[in-house]
Amino acid sequence: MRTDTCARRELQEETGYTAKSLVKLCEFYTTPGFTTELMHVFLAQGLTAGVASPDEDEFVKVEVVPFLEALKMIFDGKIRDGKSIAGLLAAQTAVSK
Questions:
Q1: What's the CA angle centered on 67, arms 43 and 21, to 5 degrees?
Q2: Which one of 18, 28, 41, 60 is most buried, by most CB atoms within 10 A?
Q3: How far lies 95's CA from each of 30, 50, 51, 59, 60, in Å?
Q4: Active-site residue 56, yes or no?
Q5: Active-site residue among 10, 13, 14, 56?
Q6: Which long-range contacts does 34-39 make (Cβ < 8 Å, 24+ apart)?
Q7: What's the pLDDT score for residue 16?
Q8: Domains of the chain as residue ranges with CATH
Q9: Quick check: 25 and 89 in contact, CB under 8 A?
């Protein structure tokens, strides 16, 4: 299955949002030497809010935060997970080109 297809599905399931377009920014291994899990980072553009439908074992709380505030949250220690940090910094690089 194409990674953008999976990204669209996960975006809708976990957040309720749909995107007019997805731009692949990068991919990375979550824990090289320990696992072969490869993460793909997409920038979702043209978002439309909808209803989330996460799996019953997923507990997702969607918080809308302005982009620059989200970047600040990394350096304030409020965002600490690697996937979010990698995604936000990749998006910052992409939008500043």
A1: 25
A2: 41
A3: 24, 25, 27, 30, 26
A4: yes
A5: 56
A6: 39/83, 39/86
A7: 95
A8: 3-53+60-95 (3.90.79.10)
A9: no
> Tokens 């690089």, residue?
93
Phi and psi based region of residue 33 (left: phi greater than 0; alpha: psi -120 to 50; beta: remaining)? left
Report the pLDDT value the prediction gives residue 92, as an integer from 0 to 100: 95
- pLDDT tens for each residue of the chain, 97 residues long: 689 999 999 999 999 999 999 999 999 999 999 999 999 999 999 999 999 998 888 888 889 999 999 999 999 999 999 999 999 999 999 888 7
Taking the CA atoms of 44, 14, 80 and 74 in sequence, report the sign of the dihedral they define: positive
